[in-house]
Every structure is written in C-alpha cells, then in structure tokens.
C-alpha cells in the first residue's frame, strides 16, 4: 500500500475542529483547487507507536479505502509526514447518529426502517467483499448532510479502549457466540442489526442492565422483551425477533431483511428521511462554498 505522496496538508484549507478520537483530531477542511469539503483525521505517529497501532491502522485504511458504497463513509485518500498520518474522509455533516438518537429519545418506524435497510445494504456489500464485522453501533455511525447513514469506523478506532469505555460500554452489541468465545462469522452483523433496530425504536438496547455481567447473561439467554411504550408495530418486533436468534445460522439473512414486510412498508428507498428544503437550510459551520463531488477528485 503506497500513500499518495502528492497530497499534503498545504492542499487543504483547514476549517473548524470537529472532534477528537484516541489517536488524533478531526477537522473540517476544503481541498483548495476543487473546493471539495472533506473531514481530515489527523493521527499522530507518536500515539500510534505508543499503542503499537501502526499495522492495525494500515490494515483498516486498506479495507476502508477499498470500499465504495453510499452507506459506507468514503476514505478518499491518505498521506503522511514526519509526525502525522492524515486520512481524507467524506464529511458527515450531521455527525454522530448516537447523539441524534440520544437527543430524539427514539426514532419513528420510518426513520428506523430506513437506517436498518441502509445498513443491511452496506453490510451485504461489505460481506461480498469479504469484509466482516463492522462493529456497527450508534457511535460508529455518522449521518451525511442529507441524513443518510454512514458506517464510519472500520475497527481501528473502535477497538481503542478509550472509545469503548468513554462513549458507552459496547458489550450491548455483542452477539452470544462472541461472548461464549465460539467461532463467529458474518451473522454477528445480523445480530447487531437486530440490536440497533431495537435501540432505534425503543431508545436503548434490549439487553441493557446495571451490571455488565447481567447484560452478558441476558444476551446469552436472549432475554428479549418489548416494553409497552413506545408503541412499536408487530412487524417491527417480528423483524427484531428474527434477527436476535441465538443460533446464528437461523438469523434472518441480509437479503431477507430487505424483503421483510416492515422494511418494505417503512424504509425510504432514497435512504434519507430528510426533506430537500431542510437539507438546503443546513449550513456547514466554518465553510462557505457548496459541497462538490469528491469521488472525481480523489
Ligand atoms: P474519531 O477519531 O473517529 O473518534 O472521531 C472524533 C470525532 O470526530 C467524533 O465526534 C466523530 O463523530 C467526528 N468525526 C470523525 N470522522 C468524521 C467525519 N468524516 N465527518 C464528520 N465527523 C467526523
């Protein structure tokens, strides 16, 4: 894997600071020649060395760079200098799904179904490319300016302990076979989709408990109950029940998720539940020009 040496920091106008991960900072930026808006993830080599993360990052960059799907955050390119590795990423203007979900409490069936269908499509694409287990949990999912969901984390940042503990304990999304340390395959993603679908509709994951050990026990027993509020349709519950199945070979396939009556009835084919006039009203703080298509540029 050779980095595109022709890119450097001087090709970008740096905008506002977006946030910080374990290995560095994320900034809004604009490629000077094209005006294309991106997010730059600046990772400090010293930190990578401290945590022995070099080869891990390299592998994850290779994976993400090879993926091109509307619901997978694009990694356009990357470059490095003495101190830093810089990832040039698609900018997700509406930020973390996690925060949107916490602010809303829970999503409507239309929104939830649209996200689940988008994720099922993205995962089917990843699986076809032999890319498994995307660690899909709300804090690894971003929303673009049109409200389309993007799988944003390809393992390397999510596997950092800081992220796991500070943002929220991630055991809620573990499939039973992982807890029981059995061999696991693509079907762990289908389990996680069931967990996310539940969390989108009810506001919290299904096996949540005060003690982590209790959560683990509830997952292994598939101790699934549906509260009476908020009121959720029986079709949605049917889909969740067909994904949260202990025997991984019996879980609904990604193709069958797309054919499920609840998805057919509720999911927006465009992948977005936001009206165009709301999109137009959305300002990107710190930047003036219109977004341009970066896929031509990189
Ligand atoms: P991370 O290093 O991935 O943990 O990201 C640090 C912060 O930047 C988090 O709040 C992310 O949601 C945000 N962030 C990371 N990548 C992007 C992106 N491509 N677009 C918008 N926000 C991002």
UniProtKB/TrEMBL annotation:
<dbReference type="GO" id="GO:0005524">
    <property type="term" value="F:ATP binding"/>
</dbReference>
<dbReference type="InterPro" id="IPR008271">
    <property type="entry name" value="Ser/Thr_kinase_AS"/>
</dbReference>
<feature type="domain" description="Protein kinase">
    <location>
        <begin position="12"/>
        <end position="263"/>
    </location>
</feature>
<dbReference type="InterPro" id="IPR017441">
    <property type="entry name" value="Protein_kinase_ATP_BS"/>
</dbReference>
<feature type="binding site">
    <location>
        <position position="41"/>
    </location>
    <ligand>
        <name>ATP</name>
    </ligand>
</feature>
<feature type="binding site">
    <location>
        <position position="22"/>
    </location>
    <ligand>
        <name>ATP</name>
    </ligand>
</feature>
<dbReference type="Pfam" id="PF00069">
    <property type="entry name" value="Pkinase"/>
</dbReference>
<keyword id="KW-0067">ATP-binding</keyword>
<keyword id="KW-0808">Transferase</keyword>
<keyword id="KW-0547">Nucleotide-binding</keyword>
<dbReference type="GO" id="GO:0004674">
    <property type="term" value="F:protein serine/threonine kinase activity"/>
</dbReference>
<feature type="binding site">
    <location>
        <begin position="90"/>
        <end position="92"/>
    </location>
    <ligand>
        <name>ATP</name>
    </ligand>
</feature>
<dbReference type="InterPro" id="IPR011009">
    <property type="entry name" value="Kinase-like_dom_sf"/>
</dbReference>
<keyword id="KW-0418">Kinase</keyword>
<feature type="cross-link" description="Glycyl lysine isopeptide (Lys-Gly) (interchain with G-Cter in SUMO2)">
    <location>
        <position position="137"/>
    </location>
</feature>
<feature type="active site" description="Proton acceptor">
    <location>
        <position position="135"/>
    </location>
</feature>
<feature type="binding site">
    <location>
        <position position="153"/>
    </location>
    <ligand>
        <name>ATP</name>
    </ligand>
</feature>
<feature type="binding site">
    <location>
        <begin position="139"/>
        <end position="140"/>
    </location>
    <ligand>
        <name>ATP</name>
    </ligand>
</feature>
<comment type="similarity">
    <text>Belongs to the protein kinase superfamily. Ser/Thr protein kinase family. Aurora subfamily.</text>
</comment>
<dbReference type="InterPro" id="IPR030616">
    <property type="entry name" value="Aur-like"/>
</dbReference>
<protein>
    <recommendedName>
        <fullName>Aurora kinase</fullName>
        <ecNumber>2.7.11.1</ecNumber>
    </recommendedName>
</protein>
<dbReference type="InterPro" id="IPR000719">
    <property type="entry name" value="Prot_kinase_dom"/>
</dbReference>
<keyword id="KW-0723">Serine/threonine-protein kinase</keyword>
